[in-house]
Design brief:
The chain is α+β, with helices and mostly antiparallel strands and 447 residues long. It is built from 11 helices and 15 strands. InterPro entries: Cupin_8 (IPR041667), HSPB1-associated_protein_1 (IPR013296), JmjC_dom (IPR003347).
């Protein structure tokens, strides 16, 4: 849990029953079970293919596998989707919903091997996709992530939290706990998003039997690079999640209020299909109050952190410090932590995901081609460098990025300077801003 960069675990799941969970095997475990698939285009557009722009169909895994063979004139739920033009993705499938009457299968996934006693499939999510299926670039507001690759390979494009300004964050489409990037990181529009050139891409092709650790707030774009891929993941809760839920409640209240006022009859244009809860202002205010109350209840009970830790510079909130992107309250490393970092944890069975060579994504041949190579480091050398001069350089680059973004917008043609609701929201619910608002709310309640 002290790792601050992505890493791949090898030789950890060879005895897990879930290592045999191919799509074919799961189709036999779930005969006749209809699952919702997200259907996307195999395009190379510079705009991200958000879930609001995709179509959906309900199908069994057997029907998915038949369609994925590329047979012409197929009938059934995939009949309107030409296999040469579309990909299919059964994503975010929670085990408790998928295997509702087969709970014994939860024991096939043993996250307890990673030091989380009792964690198994009950706290896990299943992902099944065809070639090209992908998740747009985003960061998760809550927790960190463990991802077990079962079948096929997935290419992960990862960016550190400090590079957030270069990823042009947005909350449209809105999904709780997901901050999306406006940039299609595999085919970026560098004229519209020039700061993306500064983002430091880390890439790895995750193979069957490997487990990827994604630290808190690392951006990631994930694409299937084999004909069929199956993955299992679990989001691990963190202490920081209690405040993050307050930030998310603030974000939800603002997004829903402004977007509903703009167009009360078209939520599908801005609300992610994964969001099924009611979005009324009354409900959102209750959600916000619940998040704040839960925050206080947690710290009153556990007494893990003193409330003074929420303040910087004595009684004053130092806004400048909070505008430094990627601050997670861990920068004041203790001597013990430094010693632990000096002794690198990496070796043959724990491999760091290192920064990729500077290369435009278009020069790699697009998202549907793969040379099968891993972008893994061979030792821990890069990890040691990560916390010295590079970290100092990141902070100064991040601060400058905000100023440079404003300057670049100043050259926009007059016809494009009209401020839209989305433009306003991108500022109001920027993760940097909601972090400050959440801390102010918590301080006010505490006083």
């Amino acid at each position: 849990m002290s790792l601050e960069q992505p890493a791949v675990f090898c030789n950890m799941v060879f005895d897990w029953p879930a290592q045999h969970w191919t799509a074919e095997h799961l189709s036999e475990v779930l005969p006749g079970k209809r699952i919702r698939f997200r259907m996307g285009l195999k395009s190379t557009d510079t705009a991200p293919q958000f879930e609001t722009a995709c179509s959906y169909t309900e199908a069994t895994l057997e029907e998915f596998l038949t369609w994925n063979c590329g047979q012409p004139r197929i009938s059934g739920p995939f009949r309107d989707y030409d296999h040469s033009k579309f990909w299919a993705y059964a994503d975010y499938k929670y085990f408790v919903n998928l295997f509702e009457d087969k709970t014994d299968i939860f024991q096939d996934v043993m996250w307890s091997d990673f030091g989380f006693p009792g964690r198994n499939g009950r706290e896990s999510t299943l992902w099944i996709g065809s070639l090209g299926a992908h998740t747009p670039c985003h960061l998760d507001s809550y927790g960190c992530n463990l991802v077990f690759q079962v079948q096929g390979r997935k290419r992960w494009h990862l960016f550190p939290p400090e590079d957030t300004p270069f990823l042009y964050p947005t909350r449209i489409p809105y999904e709780e706990s997901s901050v999306f990037s406006k940039v299609n990181v595999v085919n970026p529009d560098l004229k519209r998003f020039p700061q993306f050139r500064k983002a430091r891409r880390h890439m790895v092709a995750l193979s069957p039997g490997q487990v990827l650790f994604v630290p808190r707030h690392w951006w990631h774009y994930v694409e299937s690079i084999d004909p069929v891929t199956v993955s299992v993941n679990s989001w691990i809760e963190l202490e920081e999640d209690h405040q993050a839920r307050v930030e998310e409640a603030i974000t939800r209240t603002l997004v829903c209020a402004l977007k509903t006022a703009e167009d009360p009859h078209n939520t599908r244009a801005w609300l992610n299909p994964t969001e099924v809860e009611e979005t009324s202002h009354e409900v959102n205010c209750r959600y916000l109050n619940g998040a704040v109350s839960a925050f206080f209840n947690h710290y009153r009970t556990s007494k893990v952190i003193e409330m003074q830790a929420l303040r910087t510079n004595g009684e004053e909130l130092n806004v400048h410090n909070h505008m430094e992107v990627g601050q997670t309250g861990r920068q004041n490393l203790t001597l013990e932590t430094v010693k632990q970092e000096a002794a690198s944890p990496f070796g043959p069975d724990l491999v760091p995901v290192i920064q990729s060579p500077e290369e435009a994504p278009s020069e790699r041949g697009g998202i549907f081609e793969s040379d099968g190579k891993d972008f893994l480091g061979k030792d821990g050398e890069h990890f040691g460098k990560l916390h010295n001069t590079k970290r100092q350089r990141r902070m100064s680059r991040s601060e400058n990025a905000i100023v440079e973004q404003v300057a670049s917008h100043g050259t926009t043609a007059p016809s494009q300077t009209l401020i839209s609701t989305d433009d306003l929201l991108d500022c109001l619910v920027n993760p940097q801003v909601t972090r400050i608002v959440a801390q102010l709310l918590i301080q006010g309640r505490n006083l």
